[in-house]
Amino acid sequence: MKKVRCLRSKIALIIVFSMLSSCAISCNKGDEKMERVSTEDFAVALCEVYISHIYGKEAAEKQKPYKVTDEHDSWRIQGQMQRRVLGGTFDITISKEDGRIIRLTHSR
Question: What 8-state DSSP symbol labels residue 106?
Answer without folding.
Answer: E
